[in-house]
Amino acid sequence: MTGMSIRNPKQALYVQFAAVAKALGNPQRLELVEHLAQGPRSVDALATKLGLPIANVSQHLQAMRRAGLVTSDRDGKFINYRLADDSVLAAFAAIRVVAEHHSAEVERVVRGWFDRHDDMEPVTRDELVSRMKEGLVTVIDVRPADEFALGHLPGAINVPLSELDSLLPDLRTDREIVAYCRGPWCVMSFEAVAELRKRGFSARRLEDGLPEWRAAGMVVEPVLQGTQR
Amino acid sequence: MTGMSIRNPKQALYVQFAAVAKALGNPQRLELVEHLAQGPRSVDALATKLGLPIANVSQHLQAMRRAGLVTSDRDGKFINYRLADDSVLAAFAAIRVVAEHHSAEVERVVRGWFDRHDDMEPVTRDELVSRMKEGLVTVIDVRPADEFALGHLPGAINVPLSELDSLLPDLRTDREIVAYCRGPWCVMSFEAVAELRKRGFSARRLEDGLPEWRAAGMVVEPVLQGTQR
DNA sequence: AGCTCATTCAATAGAATTATTGAATGAAGA
DNA sequence: TCTTCATTCAATAATTCTATTGAATGAGCT
């Protein structure tokens, strides 16, 4: 901040734009974005989810606030952070697309971890909507229960990945299962589909996660009226 | 690269996505993106445009190539770099939007430099199209001649900012002037509009630059057939 | 073969980023 | 007022990023 001397407005603008990109240019902070896209969270809750020291998460969040990615407000003795804007999720999505196109590496990672690379094609949003109308699919939300509670697809049932094994007997074997989680590349849905297929189920991933579904203006349950939290 | 140990696929993906954002997280590299959005360029040409040492620009370009932002191919003794994808421009745009929303600083920069903050509202693309049909506007492209030559709006005349003063007498005073340049925040069009107004013209900026116009699928002159360069 | 010249490489120093530690802050509740 | 506890601050070391310099590469040309 002190060593930076800006000579012209053009430079000043690039510095501003670069600051936003820089704030997104860190794996931990991207993971924070993905979690905050599920709903507002306290520093403590985020640190638990990511398995990182609280002070570390606090600093990342402050860096993100400085760049305009998140805002915060106090609730009792907790401070809740949330994404500043839908534009933040859009920027994350745009960056993901660039990485996918340069996908040699991204695809290698996914395929390297989940050997079944046949028919990993995801279900599109439109496709899912029409199949839901026909009642042909079971939609499972593989996120943890607390995230499910903040909002989920209409009619979806919560099958956290950690409890997939124990809940398997409850799933119908005569219908296709569509799994989704936090976002297009959220690995939990990859793992759930791989596991389900190993057990003989017909299963696919939804191309998006809940935040994208919500951002597309689709209905989310439970429908909360009044102030959105 | 060597000190990085990745334990799980989730982490590996965030690292990939973060690498893309990191490559965009530098003012100089963003300026390179904006210039490359006008058309392919050699290292030398870019270094001249930015006023930076060639070796420095070369290193930035290599970093961008590693992140999948640009590609390069040799032409004689020059190596031409170009944007890898439309998605790169889209990502840049998305980042700009985030910065605009957090606009306290961005807007302050623009307003601080150009005191006329009344009616700096830009002309939208649709608005310009309909007014062009009616023949009500003079469209000027304030970029340097070499960029204009690679492609420009139909019917636009090239008035490089550096030559604005000397070309002023050629401009009609009875029609509104719409100026555009490299992108939505390219400062040359701001400066051109400010100067034109000072001289009594009725002038506004186009909301976008040429790359956005092209990306929207609009006609660009000259229309080149065959291999796009 | 030898020369030219655009680009890349290699080495360096200075600056910024990151994770870690422990202490400080400050709001809530007793 | 005192205690609790979520969060922030401050200081540090390790790593990474950045700009700069001069040498090396390697394709085109004579």
Automatic annotation (TrEMBL), chains A, B:
Domain Rhodanese: 133-222
UniProt keywords, alphabetically: DNA-binding, Transcription, Transcription regulation
CDD domains per UniProt: HTH_ARSR (cd00090), RHOD (cd00158)
One protein family per Pfam: Rhodanese
TM segment ranges: none
HTH arsR-type domain residues: 9-103
An example Gene Ontology molecular-function term: thiosulfate-cyanide sulfurtransferase activity
Cited PROSITE patterns: HTH_ARSR_2, RHODANESE_1, RHODANESE_3
InterPro entries the UniProt entry points to: ArsR-like_HTH (IPR011991), HTH_ArsR_DNA-bd_dom (IPR001845), Metal_resp_trans_reg (IPR051011), Rhodanese-like_dom (IPR001763), Rhodanese-like_dom_sf (IPR036873), Thiosulphate_STrfase_CS (IPR001307), WH-like_DNA-bd_sf (IPR036388), WH_DNA-bd_sf (IPR036390)
Superkingdom of the organism of origin: Bacteria
SUPFAM superfamilies: Rhodanese/Cell cycle control phosphatase, Winged helix' DNA-binding domain
SMART domains in the record: HTH_ARSR (SM00418), RHOD (SM00450)
Cross-referenced PANTHER family: ARSENICAL RESISTANCE OPERON REPRESSOR ARSR-RELATED, HTH-TYPE TRANSCRIPTIONAL REGULATOR KMTR
Protein name: ArsR family transcriptional regulator
Lineage: Bacteria, Pseudomonadati, Pseudomonadota, Alphaproteobacteria, Hyphomicrobiales
